Amino acid sequence: MQDRQDRRVRRSRAALMAAAVRLVSERGTTALPVGELSDAADVSRQLVYLQFGDRDALLVAAATDLVERELIPEAGDEDVSPRARMLAMARHFARHRPFYRAMLTGSCAFPMTRDLNRLFGSLITVAGLREVFGDLDDATAQDLAALIAGGTGTIVNDWLIDADDPLDPDELADRLLRLSTTLARTPGGRPR
Fold it and tell me: Which of 20, 29, 171, 173 could be a cystine partner for 62, CB 3.0 to 4.6 Å?
């Protein structure tokens, strides 16, 4: 009995998140009534509040789910080149631009930006930072990862919101790669 309820909860959550991504993408706004989201998912309004608390929490959960299902498997593979990882990330954001643009300019902008920065931070390893910058203590490595993640997030946000259509994922990937290559240089200008 419990397993059947758990499956129903997972299906309802998945339906709500899919409906949220679709409706925000189609309408270009996060200003959607809870009733429309629940109707599109074929669940009750009450379920939105029980599962997520409010509309904005549902929308941020939908974005996090989209990133975890699509982006992390594509861009998180450490066996591919850094450019391939950056290109996979840029292609994901370009493919879902209407959704992310609305999320980054609507009522969910702050939690969405925070979650994207967490995502970018998860792709930066302390070992990788130490390889590039030498022996860093843990606190400095974490601060540096946060700085790099926040800067990457700002560049991606600006690209999603302000760049001309169509977005060019290759241009963004090359831009981010140039920045990471620049960060990897010694103060004298030579690669480490």
Answer: 20
